[in-house]
């Protein structure tokens, strides 16, 4: 007789914890607007100024994820390949800039030597 009562009590406690816990957390969690109002005015201004840039970055990221998901490869491998391509492009740009700088230095040396 006590065994079914114990099971019912445990089921009730489990239900209260599983349903009531998340409901309580949702109830006490502040909304984004409430958090924003708690910022000091300087942070509110910065947040509003950077909002458009952050939204654009997020949209770009989501579009990249969609593009990577269309590939037959894993998203992680596609992201690594994209990062490698970006890094290679950056390195080639840096090497090109160094080469142009070296050429300019050589031309300046020639001009200085020719002027003497």
Residue-averaged pLDDT? 90
Number of strands: 0
Q: Tell me the strand percentage band.
A: under 5%
Shape: elongated
pLDDT below 50 for ≥5 consecutive residues: which ranges? none
The string of secondary-structure elements, in order, is: HHHH
Query: Roughly what percent helix?
Result: over 70%
Distance between the termini: 112 Å
Q: What is the helix tally?
A: 4
Largest sheet: none
Structural class: mainly alpha
Structural Rg: 30 Å
Write a concise synopsis of the structure shown.
The chain has helices at 2-28, 32-38, 41-70, 75-115. By secondary structure, it is mostly helical.
What does this 3D model show about the protein?
It is a single chain. With 116 residues, this protein is mostly helical. 91% of the residues lie in helices and 0% in strands. The protein has 4 helices and no strands. The protein has helices at 2-28, 32-38, 41-70, 75-115. The longest helix has 41 residues, at 75-115. The protein starts with a helix and ends with a helix.
